[in-house]
Structure formats: C-alpha cells, structure tokens
C-alpha cells in the first residue's frame, strides 16, 4: 500500500462536451440493483457494496442520455456485470496471475454469451452474462448483437495479454501498452452497446469506414487513459500499479509520477482534439444513425469523466485512501499540437483518414 500523499493530483480536464444524463437514470439504477441482487454478482455484503458502488447505471445513462429506457437498462446490466467480472477474474482472484486458467475460463464464457439460450455452466457470472445476452437478442438487431460479441471477445483477449505481462513482470512500452489498452479497459464492448442502447444500427459502410473506426478507437483510448489517470491514486493505495499510463511513462522515460501524469494528460488531450476535429468533418455526410452514434461517443468521453470524479470505486476512502480532488475544467488542450502522436498503431488516425 502506498500513501496517496505521494501521488500527483489531476490537472484541469479538457473536454468541451456538455454533460448529459438519461432522465430516467434513477429508475434504471433501481431496477439494475434489483437485477444485481437477483443474479447475484457478489458473494458477501462487502462485494455487494463494491459492485453497486460502481454506479454503473449512472455511468451508462451518461453514455446514452436519449436511448429507449429499456435498452439503456440492459446496457447498464452489462456494465455492472463487467465491473464484477473485472474484480473477480481480471484484477484480483486466482485467475489474475494465471493466464492459462483465465483463457480456459474466458473461452467458454465467450461462447456462453454467443449462445445465451444454452445451459452451458453453473458459473453464476456466466449465468448473469447469458441473461444479458438474451436481453440483447430481444431488443437489438442481429448486427448489433454480433458487433457487441466481437468487441467482447477482443476485450477478453486483451485482458489475457495484460495478465501475461503481469506474470512475466513485463512493463510494456508506450506502443505496446496503447495497443493493449485499446481493448483491455473494456471500452470496445461498452461503446458497441451504444447502438443497442439507442436502438439505432449504423450502416456497415459507415461503421467500418476508416474515419468511423478511428473515431471509435479514439473515444476508447481517451476514456481508457482517463481511467488510468483517475484510478492511479486508487492503484497506488492498493499497491497495484504494474500497468498504467503513468507507470508506463515513468518506467520507460525515467520520469517522476508527476512528470508522467503531465505528459499522459498532454497525449490524451491531443487525441481528444483530433477526435473533435475529425467528428466535425464526418458529420455533414453522415446518416442519422451515424450522427447519433458520433454524438454518443462524445457523451461517453464526457460521461466517463463526470462519473469517475465521484464514483465510490475510485473515491471511497477505504478503496483509494482519499477522494479525488475536483481538478476543474481546462479551456483548451494542454498540448495543442495537431501532429500525429508518435505511437505506432494509432498514428494513422491523423495520416490515413479524411479530415
């Protein structure tokens, strides 16, 4: 356990997207907690407090503030499930240091999602995921379900990658970490649910275009890096900072945590600025479904920040030592360069798409 007095404070946050939340967020949360209790996604009262303390209903109500209530409800269930799964099978527990056992569990888990009407296991987390899968089949299109399942599989693969690094004692460099983090944070399935939550299927010719792929990946990375920055204090308190944007930069560049935090924020700001510019270039010719999706990507970035600054998962004294201080809002990016970040695998967001 490391004293949080030694961890740097967050600088002001750049995000010129207005906050929004679904008007029925409280009702969605009430029903979601009832679902968590019915599954259940915990073994004791402490785990129950931790799962419910993720405020997952509010989290997704910020991502899809205008979606049909039932669809947003179903998406919120997966977010609660995802946090419970992350705590039990990814960041801690016997599988968090055994990639072989994790993969042996993750394969059947993924198949259970893809075949949610089959009784494949008695694992309560699998049963809960299948309940979510059935609800998606009932309220979403086959294309939306497939896109979510594909993103879910990519997430499980990246978590295994992360566990392998942990077992090897390997600190990835920035390029490797960025490639891994695009999926290991769970951003891809979370954003894949936007189409489900809003009941709007984006045509494949648009969703699979380089520009929209880049926009989706940028939104994932900004939110993932934001999570790294917001959770750094908690991870220091728990002694669990083996793979985090701050520690990656500090390790490979020889920087202090404060210097790494400042540099990480600058990189994050450059990606967000590129996202906002490219989104404006894509919007004029976009279908109604794509415009709605692009709007929700912005809500996801802003909603993730608003949620993180007060959620007990990052701020309760017993899990973080001290709450995050409100950093305030920056008027512009801390790094105003429009040049591509020199990170292999993402430089194409600037070089190879329109805008």
Query: What is the strand tally?
Result: 0
Span between termini: 46 Å
The CATH C-level class name:
Mainly Alpha
The CATH superfamily bears the name Farnesyl Diphosphate Synthase
Largest sheet: none
Helix content: 55-70%
Secondary structure category: mainly alpha
| Beta-strand content | under 5%
Shape: globular
Tally of individual domains: 1
Q: Which second-level CATH architecture applies? A: Orthogonal Bundle
Family: Belongs to the terpene synthase family.
Protein name: Terpene synthase
Keywords: Lyase, Magnesium, Metal-binding
Cofactor: Mg(2+)
How would you describe the overall organization of this protein?
The protein has 355 residues and is mainly alpha-helical. It has one domain (8-351): Farnesyl Diphosphate Synthase, CATH 1.10.600.10. Helices cover 66% and strands 0% of the residues. The longest helix is centred in the middle third of the chain and has 29 residues, at 210-238. The chain is globular and about 50 Å long. The model is unreliable at 1-5 (pLDDT under 50). This is Terpene synthase. Its cofactor is Mg(2+).
Describe the structure in brief.
This is Terpene synthase. The protein has 355 residues and is mainly α.
Helix and strand topology:
Layout: H1 25-38, H2 45-52, H3 56-63, H4 69-90, H5 99-114, H6 124-139, H7 142-168, H8 174-184, H9 187-198, H10 204-207, H11 210-238, H12 245-253, H13 257-282, H14 288-308, H15 312-315, H16 317-320, H17 348-351
Helix pairs in contact: 1-3, 1-4, 3-4, 3-14, 4-6, 4-9, 5-6, 5-7, 7-8, 7-9, 8-11, 9-14, 11-13, 11-14, 12-13
